[in-house]
Amino acid sequence: MPLVPLPELLEHAEQNRYAVGYFESWDVYSLEATVAAAEENRSPVIIGIGGLSANHGWLREHGIHLYGAVSEMLAKRAGVPVATLFNEADSFAEAAGGLGAGFNSVMMHTQGWSQDRLIADTAALVAAAHAVDVAVEGEIGALAEVKDGVLQEAGASYTTPEAGETFVRETNVDCLAVAVGNVHFVTGGHTPTVQVDLIRQIRDAVKVPLVLHGGSGTPDDQTRLAVAAGITKVNVGTRLKHVFGQALARELQAPVEDPNLAFGSRFDGDLNSRAAAALAREIQRLMDVFGSSGKA
Ligand SMILES: [Zn+2]
Fold it and tell me: How far is the CA of 80 from the centre of ligand 1 (A)?
């Protein structure tokens, strides 16, 4: 199964009424675990890395190209349809600098930008990306986020159907991330309330597939309703690092007796492989929630 263009993946999801998960990775183990989970569940999937929590100096130096190459290779060898995403670049320059790295879709984190910069830079990225067959996810509206356990709502705003329609028409993005009560960086403590009616209204007004970020904190029942209302891509990041970190911490409680086995061996005693197995189980569970299991 080749690397599949993101719009093709999302069109299939739209027609068959499910959502494809973007499960954000941070290393080779997490990328491999995501593909393994997709193959196990016979689910389409989106793999990649994101800029929201990463060191941008490292990303630009070589991180984007390093993980773009790994992501593309894994996608090409996968037994299920896979798209690759460089998520939430911090600027046009960073996103455009990643074109050709191996990701067949890209997104900028534009929250807090002026309307003029948002439209101009998104339209410019779409033109540059489409010229090399890379899809662009745009966003309008701004998510609240949890920082140090506290909900930060300053600057957050809902996506309106009118603003969504205008933005897509003016920029020609391939899919649209919406702010409908979803929240970034939730690991517990705060429970977001997703406005399902608003998703329906945006769905009716906007021609391209809709994306729900903040999949880590949205309860499963709300995610199912959001998918039924017209969401065809759900982003999950924070929760995956949380699951992996907890599993790794458990593994490290016992003294490491054979470092050659524990680190990088890929045998059963490889601690990162063990944590990655817990990660894959959580991804498989989320694929069931999104309705994508069995759709590949
Ligand atoms: Zn996000």
Answer: 24
Q: How far is the CA of 50 from the centre of ligand 1 (A)?
A: 8
Q: CA-CA distance, 115 to 110, in Å (whole number)?
A: 10
Neighbour count for residue 251 (Cβ, 10 Å): 18
- Cβ neighbours of residue 16 closer than 8 Å, sequence gap 6 or more: 295
Give pLDDT, residue 63: 96
pLDDT for position 292: 98
In the chain, where are the structural domains located? 6-251+281-290
User: Does the 6-251+281-290 domain belong in CATH 3.40.50.300?
Assistant: no
**pLDDT, tens only, 225-270:** 999 999 999 999 999 999 999 999 999 999 999 999 999 999 999 9
pLDDT of residue 145: 87
The Å distance, Cα 107 to ligand 1 centre, comes to 10
